[in-house]
């Protein structure tokens, strides 16, 4: 991956130099803007190298889960550089249109744009091949940026050709289009990066696969509260498993270790797994839970403006219990009213079952779905 970043730096340096020189000397704002875009690609490539080097450091006392997220920080640098580039191009393009400062057609300007299309396309194909091996989100962000560059250079070629056909304002107009594409790419990259930095889930498919793998381990009766979050190229997982309450502690730890090993082996990019072992509920406990859930559902629907509830779950926390549920409320209610309703639901449940010490409520508008328990 480091090799890919170095190659990208040298390739973009050459392509950028060609377009900046040609655009400046021969007065094509579209070609010059394309050169600025490529220059910021160089900044992006350098930031990727820094991010990779930082992310590959092993865990330490201050970063117990490693430094994976450092790999995503360069993506924010890439997005920021694209915002700056697009702003400058917008300003200059509108200034030229306002003052009618149009340049003449030059064949060398068209040649520079066509050269950029070929070079960027080859670079993008190379980066995508590397991505298939390393699965780096930053590298994918960079490849998307390069793809945008190919389309940008194509637009520039069309604009320069239009100048040759007697449409001088086509050059700054294409420059505006280039700036818009640059801005769009920056927004997409920043949104994707912020999702990763904000502990976003790798997706329901991965969660389902983790649960399926855990259930294949002998001794695991069931699993729940399966959670996963992305950190750089890696995925961090934690889940709860149920085991036979009569087995020894050593055996339960062995089952837990086997679950960890199975997930690491079968789910790509998982770098850390935390397993919480719990005794599986007995038949009488299940029956009690079913009765409690039915009673809770009945009590919740007595609250005014609650039209239903679903997803009720009960969990033991020592001798106490925690209840979790989703309630359906009128979509026209204010946040203040919805919060008041949740408080009333919580009070009613804790009064009905004193051993329930905490109630976690997720409010949903009535249109989300039907009532289920």
Number of helices: 10
Major sheet: size, sense and barrel closure? 3 strands, mixed
Mean pLDDT: 79
In CATH, the topology of the largest domain is named Alpha-lytic protease prodomain-like
The helix/strand class is alpha/beta
CATH superfamily of the largest domain: Cation efflux protein transmembrane domain
Strand order across the biggest sheet?
1-2-3
By CATH, the architecture of the largest domain is named Up-down Bundle
Overall geometry: elongated
| Rg calc | 29 Å
Percentage beta strand? 15-25%
Question: How far do the termini sit from each other?
Answer: 49 Å
- Count of beta strands: 6
Helix content: 55-70%
H and E order: HHHHHHHEEHEHEEHE
Q: Show unreliable segments.
A: 368-373
Q: How many domains make up the coordinates?
A: 3
**What is the CATH class of the largest domain?**
Mainly Alpha
List descriptors.
373 residues, alpha/beta, Alpha-Beta Plaits, three-stranded mixed β-sheet, 10 helices, 61% helix, elongated, disordered C terminus
Description:
The protein has about 375 residues and is an alpha/beta fold. It folds into three domains: about 200 residues, Cation efflux protein transmembrane domain (Alpha-lytic protease prodomain-like, Up-down Bundle), CATH 1.20.1510.10; about 80 residues, Alpha-Beta Plaits (2-Layer Sandwich), CATH 3.30.70.1350; about 90 residues, 2-Layer Sandwich (Alpha-Beta Plaits). About 60% of the residues lie in helices and about 15% in strands. Strand 1 and strand 2 form a beta hairpin. The longest helix has 28 residues. The C terminus is likely disordered.
């Amino acid at each position: 991956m480091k090799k890919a970043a170095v190659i990208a730096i040298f390739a973009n340096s050459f392509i950028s130099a060609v377009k900046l020189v040609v655009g400046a000397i021969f007065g094509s704002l579209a070609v010059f803007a394309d050169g600025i875009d490529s220059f910021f690609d160089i900044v992006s490539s350098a930031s990727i190298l820094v991010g990779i080097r930082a992310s590959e450091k092993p865990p330490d006392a201050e970063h117990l889960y490693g430094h994976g997220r450092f790999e995503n920080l360069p993506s924010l640098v890439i997005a920021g550089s694209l915002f700056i580039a697009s702003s400058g191009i917008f300003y200059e393009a509108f200034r030229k249109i306002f003052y009618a400062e149009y340049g003449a057609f030059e064949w060398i300007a068209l040649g520079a744009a066509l050269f950029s299309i070929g070079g960027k396309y080859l670079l993008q194909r190379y980066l995508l091949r590397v991505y298939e091996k390393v699965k780096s989100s930053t590298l994918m962000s960079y490849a998307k940026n390069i793809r945008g560059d190919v389309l940008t250079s194509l637009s520039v070629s069309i604009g320069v050709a239009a100048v040759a056909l007697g449409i001088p304002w086509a050059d700054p107009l294409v420059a505006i289009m280039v700036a818009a594409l640059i801005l769009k790419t920056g927004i997409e990259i920043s949104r994707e990066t912020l999702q990763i930095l904000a502990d976003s889930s790798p997706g329901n498919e991965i969660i389902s696969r983790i649960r399926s793998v855990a259930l294949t381990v002998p001794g695991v009766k069931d699993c729940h509260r399966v959670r996963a979050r992305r950190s750089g190229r890696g995925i961090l997982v934690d889940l709860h498993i149920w085991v036979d309450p009569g087995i020894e502690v050593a055996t339960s730890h062995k089952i837990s270790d086997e679950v960890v090993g199975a997930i690491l082996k079968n789910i790509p990019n998982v770098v850390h797994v935390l397993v919480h072992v719990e005794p599986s509920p007995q038949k009488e406990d299940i029956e009690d839970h079913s009765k409690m859930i039915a009673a809770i559902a009945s009590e919740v629907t007595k609250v005014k403006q609650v039209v239903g509830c679903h997803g009720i779950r009960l969990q033991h926390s020592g001798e106490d219990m925690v209840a979790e549920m989703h309630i359906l409320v009128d979509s026209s209610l204010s946040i203040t009213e919805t919060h008041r309703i949740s408080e009333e639901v919580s009070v009613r449940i804790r009064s009905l079952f004193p051993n329930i010490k905490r109630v976690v409520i997720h409010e949903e508008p009535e249109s989300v779905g039907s009532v289920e328990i």
